[in-house]
Design goal:
single chain, Alpha-Beta Plaits, 6 strands, alpha+beta, elongated
């Protein structure tokens, strides 16, 4: 499975989720207050990749964000995003995927006040694929 295929699969997880209205892969910090973004939104960013003996792993930061009112403590949004995060992690761990995930997938809660009042979760998911690391396969 190629990196492009993995990204398309991750994007499809977001677009098929009934509570996510917008999905974007790549640099998104300048998009947070973009009028094209309809929240709740899922932003995907590639954090790193790593070769090991017979594996290749990609680590993705998956952000699940929604707007909240300034006078609220954003707890309701964080609760909703936690449920969506559970759904996304369940999709990541589907046995039919080409990859496996680590047992521990960290989830970080946060609130943003600039450029908009946003609350959400970041999931740091490593997707591990088999890799022969065989130079005989190089064209």
């Amino acid at each position: 499975m190629t990196l492009n295929q993995i990204i398309q699969t991750l994007k499809s997880y977001g677009t098929s989720h009934p509570q996510i209205n917008y999905v974007l892969f790549g640099e998104f910090s300048d998009k947070l207050d973009d009028e094209d973004v309809t929240y709740p939104a899922m932003f995907i960013d590639l954090a790193s990749a790593n070769f090991s003996a017979k594996q290749l792993s990609y680590t993705f930061n998956i952000y699940l964000l929604d707007r909240h009112l300034q006078e609220t403590d954003a707890l309701e949004v964080l609760s909703d995003m936690s449920l969506i995060a559970e759904d996304i992690v369940a999709k990541l761990r589907t046995p039919s995927n080409t990859w496996i995930t680590e047992d521990n997938i960290p989830m970080t809660f946060f609130r943003e006040a600039d450029p908009d009042f946003l609350a959400g979760i970041r999931i740091d998911a490593s997707l591990i694929l088999p890799s022969l690391n065989n130079r005989c396969q190089i064209p």
